[in-house]
Backbone:
């Protein structure tokens, strides 16, 4: 009851003697400090908006321009060429002030014009992508001049969103070029008759409907997962302590994000940071089915789901043993320390209360089909206590799951336990993760942790960036006591976490069970395997003078061919964040060059090294094309959306969009290399992240290249398909990597070069 009274700032009671007014000074102080923190955030946000708005100039440069103009005026020269005098004529101020005021107004206009010009120049410079196509180690004079100009116009000390206004828009490729590249990629996977029929459909589309759809698309353009813990190390076996440091590190990242203190990611040019805005305080809301496509939003409304983002949230929603809690992460206007968060988490772990009827498996609604969840949300969670509790979860900074299981690379079967650990992060029990939240932090009983992220609001590298910061801050900055607890003290006035209450009727419970059955069937079918490869890494591959990504992708083609005896349509994710609000594009990694190489290698031909380099160069070219707006699949997908909006049917687009990606791949980049020290701390190796299979009879492969000597892979498929096996495919991938490394070893002679040298010597003899 004491905590309840503290939560009320004032209360009054009407009695026969009058009004009895009681004030809680402590509660009033909490309200004051919370309001003060909120206003500080608003001021910081306003300041950052001003700094970002005038970038690449700085607000102080305005004063420099004003002083320069006033100085020239005192030398009896007119830098405005008469404009200052024109401004004076329209100023309703005294004669003495007119000159100064008009000069300041002219200076301000000149300053804004200079900013606009600099941003326009920077935007044009960032539209140049020729540097990506140059041979490694050989930089042209054009690129050198371009790089110098970028440095001149880029300004100094950018904030996270400083470059957003200067990034170019994603271009719309020509229909002819996209169709041509598509047919080239499809040729090797089709029979002669299939290819001839598809060629006819492509020509009809290109000459008729394609041009019309392209016109609409150009008009629109003018308007316009999981991550694991450290592999070998568990910093503390105490669940609440690991939660304390992890959650506090998440808050530190959010504070840096709000202040825009996180450095923009620079890949010779800045990458778009728009996705970072929705990391925290974001939820996906289910929508009911519709048969229409909303063209101006460029969104396929098969389900009218929507992303809701709130400016701030001072608490997280916590799930433990079927119960939901609200855990405040701020007190008296300050962030809770790791030790205080540990204390609060322990309070939840020690709570003996039981779940309310229907509460334990409630989150299964977010794991099942979207339409039943949308209908249940509208029918059972739109008012009363259920709405208040659901609002609490959806408006939380993020979701936290306290798991009673122990996970990690441990016991008599470390490899198998590692697989189960990753699979647990992927879907858990299907009711202990709130899958609609932007991300869920999962904390296991033995101190291991991990992340489950919703994918619609952002791509994997965004959450990977957060998790890299959280893991390294947890271990190397915050640390633990010798007993394994968080450092620091606990304030005696902390209010305990609050249980969320629910009133779930029997009909809603039945829908929860149906959603759980759907989700459980899918989850049980997932075959998941984590494969750490320590035999070699980026260092060994670079000695072969081959792109590490191209090396791995060709190895995947070789492994799949050995595994299934054929080639398949392959998806590799490539980012398009060189452009404003860019997300991803597809690299079709199965090329005629890679297939030619694989067949030659399996046939024992001696020209394999030359064919491998040709395949690697083709892959690099396709990857660069995808990054610079020259990909195939996003353009075809957008044309399909426009056709649906116009009510037009395209046999060509229908077939393209129905193709099956039996091999879906993605690289998780290690972005903040400076945070990791693999030399002095080799055990603090991240496991990376993974995802489920895209096709029922296919594989999902995610890989992360760690340092110079390690590659970690997450491989998924379905138990229900007798042709797929994640462990067998993992073994095939490892053997393919080793075979390619042996083939391309610098010590091994290249038969193709030897033949070329022999030919040259023969000509000399003649």
Residues:
């Amino acid at each position: 009851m004491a905590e309840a009274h503290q939560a009320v700032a004032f209360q009054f009671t009407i009695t026969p003697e009058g009004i009895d007014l009681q004030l809680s000074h402590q509660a009033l102080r909490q309200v004051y400090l919370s309001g003060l923190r909120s206003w500080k955030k608003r001021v910081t946000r306003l300041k950052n908006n001003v700094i970002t708005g005038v970038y690449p100039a700085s607000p102080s440069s305005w004063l420099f321009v004003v002083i320069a103009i006033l100085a020239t005026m005192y030398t009896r020269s007119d830098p405005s060429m008469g404009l200052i005098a024109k401004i004076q004529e329209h100023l309703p101020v005294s004669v003495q002030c007119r000159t100064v005021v008009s000069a300041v107004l002219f200076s301000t206009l000149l300053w804004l014009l200079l900013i606009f010009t600099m941003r326009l120049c920077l935007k044009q410079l960032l539209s140049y992508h020729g540097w990506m196509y140059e041979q490694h180690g050989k930089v042209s004079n054009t690129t050198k001049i371009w790089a110098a100009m970028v440095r001149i116009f880029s300004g100094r000390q950018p904030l996270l969103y400083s470059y957003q206004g200067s990034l170019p828009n994603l271009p719309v490729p020509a229909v002819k070029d996209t169709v041509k590249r598509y047919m080239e990629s499809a040729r090797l996977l089709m029979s002669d008759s299939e290819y001839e029929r598809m060629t006819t459909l492509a020509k009809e589309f290109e000459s008729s409907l394609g041009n019309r759809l392209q016109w609409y698309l150009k008009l629109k353009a003018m308007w316009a997962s999981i991550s694991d813990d450290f592999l070998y190390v568990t910093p503390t076996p105490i669940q609440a302590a690991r939660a304390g440091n992890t959650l506090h590190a998440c808050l530190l990242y959010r504070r840096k994000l709000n202040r825009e203190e996180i450095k923009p990611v620079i890949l010779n040019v800045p990458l778009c940071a728009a996705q970072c805005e929705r990391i925290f305080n974001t939820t996906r809301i289910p929508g009911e089915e519709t048969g229409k496509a909303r063209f101006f939003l460029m969104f396929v409304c098969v389900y009218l789901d929507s992303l809701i983002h709130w400016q701030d949230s001072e608490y997280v929603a916590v799930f433990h043993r079927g119960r939901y809690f609200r855990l405040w992460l701020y007190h008296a206007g300050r962030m809770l320390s790791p030790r205080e968060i540990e204390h609060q988490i322990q309070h939840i772990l020690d709570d003996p209360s039981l779940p309310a009827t229907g509460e334990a498996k409630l989150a299964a609604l977010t794991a099942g089909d979207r339409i039943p969840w949308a209908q249940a949300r509208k029918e059972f969670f739109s008012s009363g206590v259920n709405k208040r509790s659901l609002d609490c979860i959806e408006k939380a900074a993020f979701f936290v799951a306290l798991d009673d299981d122990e996970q990690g690379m441990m016991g008599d079967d470390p490899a198998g336990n590692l697989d189960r650990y990753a699979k647990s992060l992927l879907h858990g029990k299907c009711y202990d993760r709130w899958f609609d939240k932007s991300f869920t932090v999962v904390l296991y009983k033995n101190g291991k942790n991990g992340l489950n992220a919703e994918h619609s609001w952002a791509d994997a590298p965004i959450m990977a960036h957060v998790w890299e910061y959280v893991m390294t801050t947890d271990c190397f900055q915050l640390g633990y006591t010798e007993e394994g607890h968080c450092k620091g003290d606990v304030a005696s006035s902390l209010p305990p976490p609050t249980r969320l209450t629910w009133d779930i009727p029997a009909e809603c419970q039945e829908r929860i069970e149906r959603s759980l059955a759907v989700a459980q069937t899918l989850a049980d079918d997932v075959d998941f395997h984590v494969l750490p490869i320590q035999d070699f890494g980026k260092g060994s591959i670079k000695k072969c003078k081959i792109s590490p990504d191209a090396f791995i992708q060709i190895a995947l083609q070789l492994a799949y061919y050995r595994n299934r005896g054929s080639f398949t349509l392959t998806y590799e994710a490539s980012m398009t964040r060189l452009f404003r609000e860019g997300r991803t594009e597809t690299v079709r990694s199965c090329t005629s060059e890679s297939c030619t190489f694989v067949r030659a290698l399996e046939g024992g031909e001696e020209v394999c090294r030359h064919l491998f380099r040709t395949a690697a160069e083709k892959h690099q070219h396709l990857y660069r094309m995808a990054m610079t707006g020259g990909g195939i699949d996003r353009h075809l997908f957008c044309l399909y959306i426009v056709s649906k909006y116009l009510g037009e049917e395209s046999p060509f687009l229908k077939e393209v969009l129905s193709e099956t990606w039996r091999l879906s791949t993605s690289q998780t980049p290690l972005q903040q290399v400076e945070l990791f020290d693999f030399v002095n701390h080799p055990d603090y190796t991240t496991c990376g992240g993974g995802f489920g299979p895209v096709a029922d009879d296919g594989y999902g492969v995610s890989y992360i290249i760690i340092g110079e000597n390690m590659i970690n892979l997450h491989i998924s498929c379905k138990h229900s398909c007798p042709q797929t096996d994640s462990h067998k495919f993992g073994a095939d991938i490892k053997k393919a990597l080793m075979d390619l490394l042996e083939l391309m070893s610098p010590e091994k002679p290249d038969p193709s070069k030897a033949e070329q040298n022999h030919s040259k010597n023969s000509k000399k003899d003649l």
The first helix runs from residue 2 to 6. The chain has a mean pLDDT of 87. The radius of gyration is 30 Å. The chain is about 45% helix and 15% strand.
